[in-house]
Specification:
Layout lengths: L2 E6 L3 H16 L3 E3 L7 E6 L4 H15 L7 E6 H6 L2 H5 L5 E3 L7 H11 L3 E3 L21 E5 L1 E2 L10 H5 L3 E2 L2 H14 L3 E5 L22 H10 L5 E5 L9 H8 L6 E3 L7 H7 L5 H12 L6 E8 L6 H14 L3 E6 L17 H24 L5 E9 L6 E6 L4 E5 L8 E9 L3 E6 L1
Helix pairs in contact: 12-13
Bound molecules: S-adenosylmethionine and iron/sulfur cluster.
Length: 441
C-alpha cells in the first residue's frame, strides 16, 4: 500500500480541502501517514495570501528533496498551484504534479498518471459536476469539531487580495446538502460544526431546498436557523464580510443557543481613505454600527477581526485611525498582517510608499495595543462560567486538557482523559493574552 503524507498551509478552506483529498486517497487504497520520511508520495496544499506563505512552499520542497529516504513523488495542490500552474515545474525542481484549487478531486488520477508515464501532470480545471464534498470521520482534523464549507470563492476583489484569482467566483453549496452533512456529523458524534467560506454571509444558493421553513432577512441567516434546527450542540461560522453583515445574524444568535456567541468581522483599517483604496465596500462608521448591534446582544458575543497595516498610501494619521477603531471595538482577538504585495492584484498599481521598517513599526505598535486590550477583555471573564468543548490534552502540561468556549476562547484546565469530546462547565480563574485557565464545575 503506497503511503501519502499531506501537509496543509493557510486557511480553514485549505484544511477542509485536504480532509477531502485524504478521504478520497484512503478510499482509493492509499495509506495516509503522518511521517514524511515514511511517505512514497508527499502532497503540499498551498497558500498564496501573503508572500511569506508562498516562500514557505519553496523552502519545504527543498527540505523534502533532502529527505534521507529515496525520492518521493511530490504534488503541489491549492492556491499557489492554481496561480503558478506549469511554471512551478520550472521554478521548483522535483515537482511531479500540480493540481489547482478545484482540481483536487482528481488527485488519484494525478498519482497514477505520474506513476505510469513518469511524466509531469498538470490540472487547473473546474470541480467535477458530481464533486463529493463529504469527508470520512477518520480524516477530519478533530474528532469532535468539523468544518463544513457552505460557499467557495470570492467576488469581492479587495484590491490587495489574491483570493478571487486563486479560488474563483463565489459558489454557494445547496442548503439541503449542508443540512444532510450536519445530520450525518451528529450521528457520527461531532459536537461542533464550523460553517466556513471566504465570506459566509454572502451565501446565495440557487434554490431554497432545505431552508423553506426558515425565516430570515438574508439567505445566510435562514441557513443559520435551518442548521440550528438540526439540534447539533454548537455552530460557529467564519468569515463574515462587513458589507454583507445583516444584523439579522445577531438576532438569529440571540434566538438560538446552539449558534455560538462569536463573530469574526475583518475591518482591515480604521481609515475611510484606506478602506476605499482597498475597495472593501464599508466605512469605519457603518462597520461600527454593526459592531454596536453585536456588542448589544444579551448573549455577550465575542468579536474578532483581521487588520492590514502599511497598505500603500497609509499615512500616520490613517494608522492612528486604525488604532482608535481597535480601542473603540475592544476586540477579543485580532490577526494583524503587514501589507504584502501580491502580483496581479490591483493594489500593485499603487506606489507602495510605506517602507518595510515603517510597516514593522506599525505592526508592533498595533499588536502591543491589541494585546493590552485583549488582556483587559479576558480579565473581564474572571469568575465567569463558560461552556467548553474538550478537544485535546494540552501540549504544554500532561495533566491539563484544552478546548474552546462558545465565544471561541482557548480554555485550559486540569481534568481526566474521559472528559475528551465532552462539553463541560468551566469557571475562569486566570487569564493570559491568548488563553484562559479555569476549573471544572
Ligand atoms: N474574506 C475575508 C475578508 O474579507 O475579511 C478574509 C479572507 S483572507 C484569506 C484573510 C486575511 O488575510 C484578510 O482578512 C486580510 O487581513 C489578509 N490579507 C489578504 N491579502 C493580504 C495581503 N495582500 N497582505 C496582507 N494581508 C492580506
Ligand atoms: Fe480577499 Fe476581500 Fe475576498 Fe476577503 S473579501 S477573500 S479579503 S477579496
Amino acid at each position: 500500500m503506497k503511503k501519502v503524507y499531506l501537509e496543509t498551509f493557510g486557511c480553514q478552506m485549505n484544511v477542509s480541502d485536504s480532509e477531502r483529498v485524504a478521504t478520497q486517497l484512503a478510499a482509493d487504497g492509499y495509506e495516509i501517514t503522518f511521517s514524511e520520511t515514511a511517505a512514497d508520495i508527499i502532497l503540499l496544499n498551498t497558500c498564496s495570501v501573503r508572500e511569506k506563505a508562498e516562500h514557505k512552499l519553496y523552502t519545504r520542497v527543498g527540505q523534502i528533496r533532502n529527505l534521507p529516504r529515496g525520492k518521493p513523488m511530490v504534488g503541489i495542490l491549492g492556491c499557489v498551484a492554481q496561480l503558478e500552474g506549469e511554471t512551478l515545474f520550472k521554478k521548483i525542481e522535483g515537482v511531479d504534479f500540480v493540481l489547482g484549487t478545484k482540481a483536487v478531486g482528481r488527485v488519484s488520477e494525478a498519482i497514477t498518471t505520474v506513476s505510469a508515464d513518469k511524466e509531469k501532470f498538470l490540472d487547473l480545471g473546474e470541480r467535477e459536476a458530481n464533486y463529493d464534498w463529504s469527508v470520512a470521520a477518520a480524516q477530519r482534523h478533530s474528532p469532535c469539531v468539523a468544518f463544513v464549507p457552505i460557499i467557495e470563492g470570492c467576488n469581492k476583489f479587495c484590491t490587495y487580495c489574491i483570493v478571487p484569482f486563486s479560488r474563483g467566483r463565489e459558489k454557494s453549496l445547496p442548503a439541503s446538502e449542508i443540512i444532510e452533512q450536519i445530520q450525518r456529523l451528529q450521528r457520527q458524534g461531532f459536537r461542533e460544526v464550523h460553517l466556513i467560506g471566504q465570506n459566509v454571509n454572502s451565501y446565495r444558493p440557487q434554490n431554497d431546498f432545505g431552508m423553506e421553513k426558515f425565516r430570515g432577512a438574508t439567505a445566510f441567516s435562514r441557513l443559520l436557523r435551518a442548521v440550528s434546527a438540526t439540534g447539533i450542540e454548537r455552530i460557529k461560522f467564519t468569515t463574515s464580510f462587513p458589507r454583507d453583515f445583516h444584523t439579522d445574524i445577531v438576532q438569529a444568535i440571540d434566538e438560538n443557543e446552539n449558534l455560538c456567541n462569536w463573530v469574526h468581522l475583518p475591518v482591515q483599517s480604521g481609515s475611510d481613505k484606506i478602506l476605499k483604496a482597498m475597495r472593501r465596500g464599508h466605512t469605519a462608521e457603518n462597520y461600527l454600527r454593526r459592531v454596536e448591534v453585536i456588542k448589544n446582544s444579551p448573549r455577550g458575543i465575542s468579536l474578532t477581526t483581521d487588520i492590514i497595516v502599511g497598505f500603500p498610501g497609509e499615512t500616520e494619521k490613517d494608522f492612528q485611525a486604525t488604532i482608535d477603531l481597535v480601542n473603540y471595538c475592544q476586540y477579543d482577538g485580532a490577526y494583524i498582517f503587514k501589507y504584502s504585495q501580491r502580483p496581479g492584484t490591483p493594489a500593485t498599481e499603487i506606489t507602495d510608499d510605506v517602507s518595510s521598517e515603517e510597516k514593522t513599526r506599525r505592526f508592533i505598535e498595533l499588536e502591543k495595543q491589541q494585546k493590552s486590550n485583549q488582556l483587559k477583555v479576558s480579565a473581564g471573564l474572571h469568575g465567569k462560567i463558560l461552556k467548553v468543548l474538550v478537544e485535546s490534552r494540552s501540549s504544554r502540561d500532561d495533566e491539563e486538557l484544552t478546548g474552546h468556549s462558545t465565544c471561541h476562547k482557548v480554555v485550559n484546565f486540569k481534568g481526566s482523559e474521559n472528559l475528551l469530546g465532552e462539553i463541560v462547565q468551566i469557571q475562569v480563574t486566570e487569564s493570559k493574552i491568548n488563553s484562559l485557565y479555569g476549573k471544572v464545575l
